[in-house]
Q: What sequence folds into this?
């Protein structure tokens, strides 16, 4: 199981913005360079994050991006939902289209519990929980 590139980048961008407490506004150019995300792809993601209200964009010479909500109010699930990247109930873990209780793949029954735990983690983890984590962004 792996998140789509767009979702991966969005989580990384928002985590980075959250961790930059001394800088209030970050430009797309700076974010692109610091996070090694292609500039055009980053600006598309930022546009969607602005449109959905997770971040705000301030125009002008000293402009940039900042969170529009408290980091404690933004869950990983909120981010994934924007990009339609939640764990779909029927998407097969083996990539064989869709499977459910009546049309199972060989891993279907074993996947249910870990999938539920991952969904719970996405719903309970906020950007605030990721602040100052030692891991890579």
A:
């Amino acid at each position: 199981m792996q998140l789509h590139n767009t979702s991966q980048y969005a989580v990384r961008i928002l985590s980075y913005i959250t961790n930059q407490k001394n800088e209030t506004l970050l430009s797309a150019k700076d974010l692109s360079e610091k996070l090694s995300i292609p500039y055009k792809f980053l600006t598309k993601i930022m546009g969607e994050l602005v449109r959905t209200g997770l971040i705000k964009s301030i125009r002008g010479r000293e402009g940039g991006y900042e969170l529009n909500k408290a980091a404690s109010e933004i869950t990983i699930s909120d981010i994934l939902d924007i990009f339609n990247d939640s764990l779909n109930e029927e998407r097969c873990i083996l990539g064989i289209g869709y499977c459910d209780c009546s049309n199972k793949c060989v891993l279907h029954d074993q996947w249910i519990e870990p999938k539920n735990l991952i969904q719970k983690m996405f719903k309970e983890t906020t950007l605030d929980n990721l602040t100052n984590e030692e891991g890579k962004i």
